[in-house]
Amino acid sequence: LMLYSTAVSTFKELLSQEVPRIMDHLFEPTLEMITTNMSDYPEHRVHFFKFLQSANTFCFYGLFSIPANHQKLVVDSIVWAFKHTERNISEAGLEILQELLQNVSGAENYSQPFYQSFLLPLVQDVMGIMTDRLHKSGFKLQAAIVMNLFHMVQAGGVKVPLYDPAQHPGIADNAMFLKEHVGHSL
């Protein structure tokens, strides 16, 4: 994990085309190992998220050229990280998410499918830890992420519908839907 994290940090976009192969061989087996419980393999857990952060920072396009089911695993891993009870892993997950959202917003061909698949669950998950007493230390970053997500929707950056118009006939746009969705969640 440290080797691949260092390689990605060193070679940057030159390794972008290799990221899907690295993910095939490294990502799922490590994820299976570290998600069995929250206490085994702490060093693997930390290095796993460092690798994910390096891949997101330096090889974003390679990271999101993987199949959709692996993309979901990447997002689920980030969510799992910021929900973790260990402070450094939780904060690393929030930092990865914040950078991922910045990368996605700058990538037109990835942004709309990403928003359609992950925006609402991310809002719900981040707001869930904001109200959790175990994650108070990351409140500033959590609030910044939620603000960023709300702003993207409010400013019209999310063009794909986040809802089914047939199921929500009184909803005019994504901003109105998000307000109602968050209101019901709270």
Walkthrough of the structure:
The protein is 72% helix and 0% strand. The protein has 9 helices and no strands. The protein has helices at residues 2-11, 19-34, 42-58, 60-63, 68-83, 87-105, 108-130, 139-154, 174-185. The longest helix is centred in the middle third of the chain and has 23 residues, at 108-130. The protein is globular and about 50 Å long. The termini are far apart. The mean pLDDT is 90.
Which bin fits the share of residues in helices?
over 70%
Q: Give the helix tally.
A: 9
Secondary structure: number of strands: 0
Major β-sheet profile? none
Question: Characteristics of this structure?
Answer:
186 residues
Blueprint (SSEs and pairs):
Blueprint: H1 2-11, H2 19-34, H3 42-58, H4 60-63, H5 68-83, H6 87-105, H7 108-130, H8 139-154, H9 174-185
Helix pairs in contact: 1-3, 2-3, 3-6, 5-6, 5-7, 6-8, 7-8
Q: How would you summarize what this structure contains?
A:
It contains 9 helices and no strands. It is mainly alpha-helical. Helix 7 crosses helix 8.
